[in-house]
Amino acid sequence: MGTAGRKQVSAAGFGESEFTLFRDTVAEIESGGEYDIQGGSGGMYSGRYQMGAAARQDAARYLGETYQGDSEAARKAFREDPEMQERYFAAYTRANHETLMKLSSEYRDLSKEGKLQVLGYAHNAGAGNAVKWLKGGMSKSFRDGFGTRSDKYSAAIRRAQEMSRSGQLTPPSPDTPPSERTSYNAPGSGAIVEYLTGDRSSSGY
pTM, whole model, 2 decimals? Predict the structure, then answer.
């Protein structure tokens, strides 16, 4: 994931393997793992993780980089740079993590697996809405501009974690170049789709 991305993951307190599982689960939901893609509400979200302008700006700040703006040219450059997408996703996740650590005692009390589940929710809904969700007992999910429930992300990450523990998922190496990377592989056709789209069950946080 590159040195800059590793620093962000380490600063948030997560290991590379558990972060890779989290990262690839989010990517499957957002883009099917594709880097050069533009979509989302209003077509304003870019890349493998469908990051909007505010997310990219937060990431640039954490990385100490100059934010390149949200012009068509800037979005195109972002889409065509997988390494940039990886470090920006790691930095944005760290930004959400630090906000949640500051504002939510419920988040601070979670295990690392539970925190990553909530960070999946926050990737879709924003950290502020994740704080509200935790405060409300995770009983009512935010919905994005397409009507997608944000707890779809947390549930998919939880399911992937469970499958990884049981040996049903094989992680790619975090060192695999983005151009050669595939998401976690599971035995049997359709297994990736199955763990991402199952109905939301009891939280297990």
Answer: 0.86
